[in-house]
Amino acid sequence: MKRVLFLVGSLAVAGYAQAGFGGGCAIKEQRIASKLEWAKAGGHRGQVLGLTRALDNVRRYCRDDLRYGRYDDIADREAEVAERREELAEARRESQEKIEKRERKLARAMRELAEIKAE
Question: pTM of whole model > 0.85?
Answer without folding.
Answer: no
